[in-house]
Structures are given as structure tokens and as C-alpha cells.
């Protein structure tokens, strides 16, 4: 890698080539910009490899990417945010961050609300459309299936075009798709609409987590992610309100869709006005483009954002986005076991959504409105989990210097056991001889444990895999949603064959078997990652990146110090000259004083 001090560079073999640009002082560049190496300009963009005569670019890894023609050497000037820049999402004002997070979290809330609100209207929908309950329950599973498949395609699109257009486009499509529920004349329209709504609504989970990473430093993400998890969980709980819509014979299932459509139309306008772009690479590309337009290459190089170098084509990014999460899921033990654990948690979650009506109607004789009230247990459990997050954050800050990212795992150690116990209580009390408060307590405890497990899955993997965290989380989420949501389709069969009591108790036993996962990750996480195919590469790349950044920072500081030292020397010299001019000349004064005597 060439440096600003280098006067020559090597393009082919050991043949030296004179640099095409003059040396530029750091002090002459715009704030936040620094002198970069000599890269190569090709028809597909700036690349860091060595263009060969056959039209390919050879990279340091030994891989080659095809390009139309060999590139030309070009000196780059890195474009970054100046310290404390108001354009840097990390430096946004507290009020602006809260406004953006409110918009993002409200969409996550709406997508979670729709998942459970649909289940409230199943009785009237089966009557009006003449369908079976099993066919209607398929809509409960198809909605999260869209959530599982959507990120595999949409993730590279959001990285290329930014968060803002992802939000605006997704909210618009998601809002309009509610018409498939409100105006449907057959079951097929409802089911297709549910799947497409899941594809659009996945932005409410995947991009919201990315927005948290855009706005907050790693040590600050605990509280925002806890709010995100609370919105997902409480959104399911607030679906209880739609039980009263279902109970009203003049409203029922179609108006469940209409009410959400009206709310989302208002939110769409707010989203356009407030959400804004938060992805730093997109903002830096825009800044680099403005600098290229205003200053050209007059400063001895081309203003370039780091994300513009070696940028893959969108088709290549889509292929990678489809392949890499599955590879992470199959080859990374940490992703695999967290995926299995969360798949079970989500499976029980959907069994609850689909089974609350079965248990409280057939076992306890609840009416439609009373059944909907049970969904408030989701919100209560989420609030308890949110309050427990503050203690987890204090433990993380205390033990992170010694335990690293494993300091995120204290809460899931307890929550894994709490989740299993809650499932067992829900099952064992789902009998006519028990009081109905027993299952409600079990659901609340279960959701309190699920809160920490769900949140940790995002935070732990995001810190373990750094820039590749989106692929790791997508792989984990794919397994979690596909497996977990499938449980809803056989809930009634499970209860009919095993009864709710033993079916839910079985889920609790499986949860107890998986509860040791956070303990294993806590004690052996670093050892496992060092021996995992992707993790060991990421660890090595992270070390190289940190060393390179430290070296670049040292060189930049030395260059700045040299400029400041030169300016200081010039100021001292000018001050000395001005003092010399203002001081009287003793030799001249003495000759003047002696002149009259001589005369």
C-alpha cells in the first residue's frame, strides 16, 4: 500500500512509474479529508487491485474480478466526517436522534401489530370466505416467511441506495397491501397479500436494527435495541385491541385491515418528513461527489469515500446476499446455535398467538373480547424484559473490558431458564381445574425471557461479526422465522393429539435443553470464534484494519504536526523581524549623538 510520502509506485512487476500527482499538505484539504494511496480507475469504478493486461483486477487475496479494460492509476483523497460534524449520524442532536428512532420504531411496532391482529379476525374471516381454520392459520405463517426471505434481497439494496428510500418505499407498499385484506373476496388473495406484506414489512425489523447502528456507538446501543425489542413484543400485545373490533358484528376482520391502513397513511407522511438518511457510507459518497464537483482534482487527488472502492455490482451483491447468510448459518457454530435457540423461542411465540384462542376458548370458555385481553400479557412481559435490560447494560459496561462481547450474555443466561419455566407453567395450568391466571403468568414469564433472548441475538452477533453482522443476523433470522412460524400451522393438531397441557410442557422441556447455549458462548465464545471458518478471517481482518487505521492516524498526526510546526516557525520568525524593526539601532544612535561634537 503506498503512502503519502512515497514518490514512486509500482504498477507491473518492479517497474517504477513516476506519480501523476503532486504532494498535498493535509492542512490544505477540507476538514475530515486525508491523503490516501494510489488506486486504479476502471470502467466499473475505483479498485484497489493491480490491473493486469488481460483486463482483470488482481487483488491481495489472489481473487480476480473482470473489468472491461485495465485501469489507470489515480491518487485518492479519503473523505470522512470532520470531528463533531453535524452531518455525521453519530453526532446528530439528541432531539434529532429521538425523532428518527420514533419513526423507525413505530414501523417496527406496526409490523408486529399486524402479525397478531390478523389472528384476531380469523373466526369472522373463515365464516365470510367459507374457508377452513387451517387455511386461515396459514396466513399467520406466510407473513413471517416474507420477513425471512425479504432481508436476503433487500439488504444489498439498502446498502447501495440508503435507508431513507428503503423506509419510504417499504412503508408505501406495505400500506397499500392492506387492501388485499380489507377488500379480499377469497382466501388466496388474503394469503398472497400476507406473504407480500411480510416482504415489505421486513424493513421494520432489519433496517430498524441498522438504523440503531447508524445513530449510536456500540456501547450506546443497548437501550435503543431494548426499545426496538419492546416495540416488537408490545406490538403483539396491542393486538388485543382488535379483539373488540372482531367482536363488533358491524366491523370484524375487514375493519382490522382498514384501521391499520388509515394509521399507516398518516405515518407515511410523517416518515417522508422526518426519517432522513442515516447510513454513513451513503452520506460520505454524497460529500465526496460534491467535493469532486466543486474542487475537481486541483488538490492532487480524487475525493473518494472508502465505500466507493471495490464496490461490487448490484447483481454481485444480490448473489452474495443470498449465499452468505446461509453459509454463516451452516458454518458458524455461534450463528447456528443462536439460530436454533431463537427458532424454538419464536416457535413457542407463534404457538401462543395461534393457541391463545384455542386454550382460552376450549379450556376456560372465554369469549372473543376476553381472549383478546390475554394478549396484554405480551406487553407486560415485554415491559419487564425492558426494565431488566438496564441491569444487563450496567453489567456490560462493568465487565466488557475483561470479557469482551461475551459481557452481553448475562441476561440470556437467566432468561433461557425463565423462558423454559414460563412455557412449563403455561402448559401445566392449561387445564379446566386450574385458574385462568396461571396461563397468563406463564405467558408473561415466557415473554420476559424471550425479550432478552431476542435482543441478545441481534446485539451479540452484531458485535461478533462487525461489518458482516448483517449476513450473520440474516442467517439467524432466516432459521428463526422459517422454523418458528411453521409451528403455528400445526398448533391445533399438537393440542388435539397431546392436549395443550403436555404440548406446551414439551416446548418448555426443549427450551430447558437449549438453555445452556449462552453459558457455553460465555465461557467458550472466543475459543469457538477463533476456530470458525469466517470468524477467524474476520478477527484477522479486524486486527489489520485497526493497525492500518492506527498507522494512518499516526502519519496524519505527524503531517498535521509538521504543518503546525512550520506555521509556528514562520510566526515566530515574523514576530522576531517585527521586533527587530521596532527596536532602536544602538550603533546608528551613537553616531548621531557624536555628530554635533565632530562638527
From TrEMBL:
PROSITE patterns: MFS
Biased segments, Basic and acidic residues type: 582-599
Bilayer topology annotation: Multi-pass membrane protein
Transmembrane spans: 98-117, 137-157, 164-183, 195-213, 225-245, 257-276, 328-351, 363-388, 409-430, 436-461, 473-490, 502-524
Start and end residues of each stretch annotated as Disordered: 569-599
Keyword set includes Transmembrane: yes
Protein name (Swiss-Prot/TrEMBL): Major facilitator superfamily domain-containing protein
Amino acid at each position: 500500500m503506498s503512502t503519502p510520502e512515497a514518490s514512486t509506485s509500482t504498477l507491473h512487476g518492479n517497474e517504477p512509474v513516476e506519480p501523476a500527482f503532486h504532494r498535498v499538505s493535509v492542512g490544505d484539504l477540507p476538514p475530515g479529508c486525508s491523503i490516501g494511496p494510489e488506486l486504479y480507475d476502471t470502467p466499473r469504478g475505483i479498485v484497489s487491485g493491480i490491473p493486469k493486461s488481460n483486463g482483470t483486477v488482481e487483488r491481495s487475496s489472489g481473487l480476480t474480478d473482470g473489468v472491461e479494460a485495465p485501469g489507470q492509476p489515480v491518487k485518492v483523497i479519503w473523505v470522512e466526517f470532520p470531528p463533531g460534524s453535524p452531518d455525521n449520524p453519530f453526532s446528530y442532536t439528541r432531539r434529532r436522534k429521538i425523532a428518527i428512532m420514533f419513526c423507525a420504531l413505530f414501523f417496527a411496532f406496526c409490523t408486529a401489530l399486524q402479525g397478531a391482529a390478523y389472528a384476531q379476525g380469523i373466526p369472522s374471516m373463515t365464516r365470510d370466505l367459507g374457508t377452513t381454520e387451517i387455511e386461515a392459520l396459514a396466513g399467520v405463517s406466510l407473513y413471517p416467511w416474507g420477513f425471512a426471505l425479504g432481508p436476503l434481497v433487500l439488504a444489498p439494496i439498502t446498502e447501495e441506495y440508503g435507508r431513507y428510500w428503503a423506509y419510504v418505499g417499504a412503508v408505501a407498499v406495505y400500506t397499500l397491501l392492506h387492501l388485499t385484506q380489507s377488500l379480499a373476496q377469497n382466501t388466496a388473495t388474503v394469503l398472497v397479500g400476507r406473504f407480500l406484506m411480510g416482504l415489505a414489512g421486513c424493513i421494520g425489523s432489519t433496517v430498524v436494527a441498522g438504523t440503531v447502528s447508524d445513530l449510536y456507538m456500540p456501547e450506546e446501543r443497548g437501550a435503543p435495541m431494548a426499545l426496538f425489542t419492546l416495540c416488537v413484543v408490545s406490538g403483539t400485545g396491542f393486538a388485543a385491541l382488535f379483539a373488540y373490533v372482531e367482536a363488533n358484528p358491524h366491523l370484524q376482520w375487514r375493519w382490522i385491515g382498514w384501521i391499520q391502513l388509515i394509521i399507516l397513511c398518516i405515518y407515511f407522511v410523517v416518515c417522508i418528513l422526518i426519517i432522513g438518511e442515516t447510513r454513513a457510507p451513503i452520506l460520505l459518497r454524497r460529500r465526496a461527489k460534491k467535493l469532486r464537483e466543486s474542487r475537481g482534482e486541483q488538490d492532487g487527488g480524487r475525493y473518494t469515500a472508502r465505500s466507493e472502492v471495490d464496490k461490487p455490482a448490484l447483481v454481485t451483491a444480490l448473489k452474495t446476499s443470498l449465499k452468505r447468510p446461509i453459509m454463516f448459518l451452516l458454518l458458524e457454530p455461534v450463528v447456528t446455535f443462536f439460530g436454533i435457540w431463537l427458532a424454538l423461542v419464536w416457535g413457542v411465540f407463534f404457538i401462543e398467538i395461534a393457541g391463545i384462542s384455542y386454550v382460552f376458548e376450549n379450556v376456560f370458555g372465554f369469549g372473543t373480547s376476553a381472549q383478546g385481553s390475554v394478549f396484554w400479557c405480551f406487553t407486560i412481559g415485554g415491559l419487564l424484559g425492558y426494565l431488566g435490560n438496564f441491569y444487563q447494560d450496567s453489567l456490560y459496561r462493568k465487565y466488557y473490558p475483561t470479557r469482551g462481547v461475551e459481557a452481553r450474555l448475562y441476561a440470556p443466561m437467566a432468561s433461557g431458564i425463565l423462558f423454559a419455566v414460563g412455557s412449563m407453567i403455561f402448559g401445566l395450568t392449561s387445564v379446566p381445574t386450574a385458574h385462568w391466571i396461571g396461563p397468563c403468568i406463564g405467558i408473561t414469564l415466557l415473554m420476559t425471557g424471550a425479550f432478552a433472548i431476542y435482543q441478545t441475538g441481534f446485539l451479540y452477533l452484531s458485535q461478533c461479526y462487525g461489518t458482516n453482522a448483517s449476513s450473520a443476523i440474516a442467517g439467524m433470522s432466516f432459521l428463526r422465522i422459517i422454523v418458528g412460524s411453521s409451528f403455528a400451522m400445526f398448533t391445533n393438531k399438537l393440542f388435539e393429539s397431546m392436549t395443550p397441557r403436555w404440548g406446551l410442557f414439551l416446548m418448555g422441556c426443549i427450551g430447558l435443553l437449549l438453555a445452556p447455549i449462552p453459558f457455553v458462548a460465555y465461557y467458550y465464545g472466543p475459543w469457538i470464534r477463533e476456530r470458525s471458518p469466517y470468524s477467524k478471517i474476520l478477527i484477522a481482518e479486524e486486527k489489520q484494519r485497526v493497525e492500518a487505521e492506527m498507522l494512518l492516524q499516526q502519519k496524519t498526526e505527524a503531517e498535521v504536526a509538521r504543518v503546525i510546526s512550520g506555521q509556528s516557525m514562520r510566526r515566530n520568525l515574523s514576530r522576531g523581524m517585527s521586533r527587530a524593526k521596532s527596536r532602536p539601532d544602538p550603533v546608528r544612535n551613537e553616531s548621531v549623538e557624536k555628530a554635533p561634537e565632530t562638527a
